[in-house]
Protein backbone atom coordinates (compact mmCIF):
# COMPACT_ATOMS: atom_id res chain seq x y z
CA UNK A 1 0.00 0.00 0.00
CA UNK A 2 1.39 3.38 -1.03
CA UNK A 3 2.14 5.84 1.75
CA UNK A 4 -0.48 8.66 1.60
CA UNK A 5 2.23 11.25 2.21
CA UNK A 6 4.08 10.00 -0.87
CA UNK A 7 0.93 10.36 -2.98
CA UNK A 8 0.36 13.87 -1.64
CA UNK A 9 4.00 14.81 -2.25
CA UNK A 10 3.83 13.57 -5.85
CA UNK A 11 0.76 15.73 -6.50
CA UNK A 12 2.37 18.76 -4.84
CA UNK A 13 5.58 18.36 -6.86
CA UNK A 14 3.64 17.98 -10.12
CA UNK A 15 1.67 21.13 -9.32
CA UNK A 16 4.96 22.91 -8.70
CA UNK A 17 7.16 21.71 -11.57
CA UNK A 18 4.67 21.83 -14.48
CA UNK A 19 3.35 25.36 -13.73
CA UNK A 20 6.89 26.62 -13.11
CA UNK A 21 8.02 25.43 -16.54
CA UNK A 22 4.80 26.53 -18.25
CA UNK A 23 4.69 29.98 -16.66
CA UNK A 24 8.39 30.55 -17.46
CA UNK A 25 7.84 29.79 -21.15
CA UNK A 26 4.70 31.96 -21.26
CA UNK A 27 6.59 34.77 -19.51
CA UNK A 28 9.34 34.85 -22.13
CA UNK A 29 6.76 34.93 -24.93
CA UNK A 30 4.70 37.72 -23.36
CA UNK A 31 7.68 39.87 -22.39
CA UNK A 32 9.02 39.56 -25.93
CA UNK A 33 5.61 40.52 -27.38
CA UNK A 34 5.58 43.57 -25.10
CA UNK A 35 8.49 44.92 -27.13
CA UNK A 36 5.78 45.55 -29.76
CA UNK A 37 3.50 48.47 -28.84
CA UNK A 38 0.45 46.69 -30.32
CA UNK A 39 0.57 44.02 -27.61
CA UNK A 40 1.51 46.14 -24.61
CA UNK A 41 -1.94 47.16 -23.38
CA UNK A 42 -3.45 43.73 -24.00
CA UNK A 43 -0.74 42.03 -21.94
CA UNK A 44 -0.90 44.72 -19.26
CA UNK A 45 -4.65 44.08 -18.94
CA UNK A 46 -4.01 40.35 -18.53
CA UNK A 47 -1.32 40.99 -15.91
CA UNK A 48 -3.61 43.36 -14.01
CA UNK A 49 -6.50 40.89 -13.89
CA UNK A 50 -4.27 37.99 -12.78
CA UNK A 51 -2.56 40.02 -10.07
CA UNK A 52 -5.71 41.78 -8.86
CA UNK A 53 -7.74 38.61 -8.24
CA UNK A 54 -6.94 35.74 -5.84
CA UNK A 55 -5.40 32.59 -7.29
CA UNK A 56 -8.04 30.53 -5.48
CA UNK A 57 -10.80 32.43 -7.32
CA UNK A 58 -9.03 31.87 -10.63
CA UNK A 59 -8.81 28.12 -9.98
CA UNK A 60 -12.51 27.99 -9.09
CA UNK A 61 -13.49 30.03 -12.16
CA UNK A 62 -11.48 27.88 -14.58
CA UNK A 63 -12.71 24.54 -13.19
CA UNK A 64 -16.23 25.37 -12.03
CA UNK A 65 -17.04 28.53 -13.99
CA UNK A 66 -15.99 27.68 -17.55
CA UNK A 67 -18.49 24.77 -17.81
CA UNK A 68 -21.23 27.43 -17.83
CA UNK A 69 -19.72 28.50 -21.17
CA UNK A 70 -19.61 24.86 -22.34
CA UNK A 71 -15.87 24.63 -21.67
CA UNK A 72 -15.18 21.61 -19.49
CA UNK A 73 -11.58 20.97 -18.44
CA UNK A 74 -9.95 18.03 -16.72
CA UNK A 75 -9.16 18.92 -13.09
CA UNK A 76 -5.40 18.49 -13.66
CA UNK A 77 -5.43 20.66 -16.78
CA UNK A 78 -7.56 23.28 -15.02
CA UNK A 79 -5.10 23.35 -12.13
CA UNK A 80 -2.09 23.69 -14.42
CA UNK A 81 -3.78 26.41 -16.47
CA UNK A 82 -4.74 28.48 -13.41
CA UNK A 83 -1.24 28.31 -11.92
CA UNK A 84 0.52 29.00 -15.21
CA UNK A 85 -1.63 32.04 -16.04
CA UNK A 86 -1.33 33.41 -12.50
CA UNK A 87 2.41 33.02 -12.05
CA UNK A 88 3.26 34.10 -15.59
CA UNK A 89 1.58 37.44 -14.79
CA UNK A 90 3.88 37.98 -11.80
CA UNK A 91 6.97 36.83 -13.69
CA UNK A 92 6.11 39.11 -16.63
CA UNK A 93 5.97 42.14 -14.36
CA UNK A 94 9.28 41.23 -12.71
CA UNK A 95 11.17 40.53 -15.95
CA UNK A 96 9.65 43.54 -17.72
CA UNK A 97 10.82 45.78 -14.89
CA UNK A 98 14.28 44.25 -15.14
CA UNK A 99 14.46 45.00 -18.86
CA UNK A 100 13.24 48.56 -18.37
CA UNK A 101 16.04 49.16 -15.85
CA UNK A 102 18.70 48.31 -18.44
CA UNK A 103 20.55 50.93 -20.43
CA UNK A 104 18.50 51.64 -23.57
CA UNK A 105 21.75 52.10 -25.45
CA UNK A 106 22.21 48.33 -25.54
CA UNK A 107 19.08 47.83 -27.62
CA UNK A 108 19.96 50.76 -29.86
CA UNK A 109 23.47 49.38 -30.38
CA UNK A 110 22.00 46.04 -31.37
CA UNK A 111 19.79 47.70 -33.96
CA UNK A 112 22.75 49.63 -35.34
CA UNK A 113 24.54 46.28 -35.74
CA UNK A 114 21.41 45.08 -37.59
CA UNK A 115 20.67 42.35 -35.04
CA UNK A 116 17.12 41.02 -35.06
CA UNK A 117 14.71 42.04 -32.30
CA UNK A 118 14.50 38.40 -31.18
CA UNK A 119 18.29 38.12 -30.94
CA UNK A 120 18.55 41.36 -28.95
CA UNK A 121 15.82 40.21 -26.58
CA UNK A 122 17.02 36.63 -26.19
CA UNK A 123 20.77 37.17 -26.01
CA UNK A 124 21.17 40.67 -24.57
CA UNK A 125 18.14 41.96 -22.65
CA UNK A 126 16.60 38.81 -21.17
CA UNK A 127 19.76 37.32 -19.58
CA UNK A 128 20.63 40.61 -17.86
CA UNK A 129 17.06 41.08 -16.66
CA UNK A 130 16.97 37.59 -15.12
CA UNK A 131 20.26 38.18 -13.30
CA UNK A 132 19.09 41.54 -11.93
CA UNK A 133 15.66 40.29 -10.84
CA UNK A 134 16.52 36.77 -9.72
CA UNK A 135 15.88 37.45 -5.99
CA UNK A 136 12.31 38.51 -6.83
CA UNK A 137 11.88 35.52 -9.13
CA UNK A 138 13.14 33.24 -6.35
CA UNK A 139 10.54 34.62 -3.93
CA UNK A 140 7.75 33.83 -6.39
CA UNK A 141 9.09 30.31 -6.93
CA UNK A 142 9.09 29.66 -3.18
CA UNK A 143 5.56 31.04 -2.94
CA UNK A 144 4.46 28.62 -5.67
CA UNK A 145 5.36 25.66 -3.43
CA UNK A 146 2.97 26.91 -0.74
CA UNK A 147 0.23 27.88 -3.19
CA UNK A 148 -0.05 24.28 -4.40
CA UNK A 149 -2.12 23.69 -1.25
CA UNK A 150 -4.96 25.66 -2.87
CA UNK A 151 -5.53 22.89 -5.37
CA UNK A 152 -7.63 20.79 -3.02
CA UNK A 153 -10.56 23.00 -4.07
CA UNK A 154 -10.81 20.98 -7.33
CA UNK A 155 -10.49 17.64 -5.55
CA UNK A 156 -6.80 16.88 -6.07
CA UNK A 157 -5.10 15.22 -3.10
CA UNK A 158 -2.06 17.35 -2.33
CA UNK A 159 -0.11 17.21 0.94
CA UNK A 160 -2.50 19.48 2.83
CA UNK A 161 -5.62 17.58 1.77
CA UNK A 162 -3.94 14.28 2.70
CA UNK A 163 -3.06 15.66 6.13
CA UNK A 164 -6.65 16.80 6.74
CA UNK A 165 -7.94 13.34 5.83
CA UNK A 166 -5.43 11.69 8.16
CA UNK A 167 -6.32 14.06 11.01
CA UNK A 168 -10.00 13.14 10.62
CA UNK A 169 -9.15 9.43 10.49
CA UNK A 170 -6.69 9.35 13.41
CA UNK A 171 -8.07 12.18 15.57
CA UNK A 172 -4.53 13.45 16.15
CA UNK A 173 -2.66 16.59 15.11
CA UNK A 174 0.44 14.65 14.04
CA UNK A 175 -0.35 14.61 10.26
CA UNK A 176 -0.40 18.44 10.20
CA UNK A 177 2.99 18.53 11.93
CA UNK A 178 4.38 15.93 9.51
CA UNK A 179 3.18 17.84 6.46
CA UNK A 180 4.53 21.08 7.93
CA UNK A 181 7.95 19.48 8.25
CA UNK A 182 7.75 18.22 4.64
CA UNK A 183 6.97 21.75 3.41
CA UNK A 184 9.85 23.15 5.49
CA UNK A 185 12.31 20.62 4.03
CA UNK A 186 11.07 21.23 0.47
CA UNK A 187 11.47 24.99 0.81
CA UNK A 188 14.86 24.63 2.48
CA UNK A 189 16.19 22.46 -0.37
CA UNK A 190 14.67 24.77 -2.97
CA UNK A 191 16.15 27.84 -1.23
CA UNK A 192 19.60 26.23 -1.31
CA UNK A 193 19.22 25.45 -5.02
CA UNK A 194 18.01 28.97 -5.83
CA UNK A 195 20.87 30.52 -3.83
CA UNK A 196 23.33 28.36 -5.75
CA UNK A 197 21.84 29.48 -9.07
CA UNK A 198 21.86 33.13 -7.95
CA UNK A 199 25.52 32.95 -6.92
CA UNK A 200 26.45 31.50 -10.30
CA UNK A 201 24.51 34.20 -12.12
CA UNK A 202 26.23 36.89 -10.06
CA UNK A 203 29.64 35.37 -10.80
CA UNK A 204 28.85 35.60 -14.50
CA UNK A 205 28.15 39.27 -13.94
CA UNK A 206 31.34 39.64 -11.92
CA UNK A 207 29.66 40.19 -8.54
CA UNK A 208 30.14 38.14 -5.38
CA UNK A 209 27.05 37.52 -3.25
CA UNK A 210 27.87 38.54 0.30
CA UNK A 211 24.84 36.71 1.79
Question: Can you give a write-up of this model?
Answer:
There is one protein chain. With 211 residues, this protein is mostly helical. It has one domain: MetI-like fold, CATH 1.10.3720. The protein has eight helices and no strands. It has helices at residues 4-33, 37-52, 55-65, 75-100, 104-112, 117-147, 159-170, 174-205. The chain is flat. 24% of the residues are buried. The model has no long low-confidence stretch (mean pLDDT 89).
Based on CA inertia axes, which overall geometry fits?
A: flat
- Helix % is over 70%
Count of helix runs = 8
Sketch the major β-sheet: none
Under CATH at level 1, the class stands as Mainly Alpha
The name of the CATH architecture is Orthogonal Bundle
What CATH calls the topology is MetI-like fold
Number of domains: 1
Rg computed from alpha carbons, rounded to a whole number of angstroms: 20 Å
Full CATH superfamily name: MetI-like
Structural class: mainly alpha
H/E series, N to C? HHHHHHHH
Poorly predicted ranges: none
Number of strands: 0
Rounded average pLDDT: 89
> What is the strand content?
under 5%
Amino acid sequence: MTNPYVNGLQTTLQLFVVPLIGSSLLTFILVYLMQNKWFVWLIKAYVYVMRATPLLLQIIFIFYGLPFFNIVLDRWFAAYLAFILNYAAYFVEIVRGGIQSLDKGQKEAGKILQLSDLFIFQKILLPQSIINTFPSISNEILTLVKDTALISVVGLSDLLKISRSLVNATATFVPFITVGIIYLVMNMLLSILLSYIENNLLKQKGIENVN
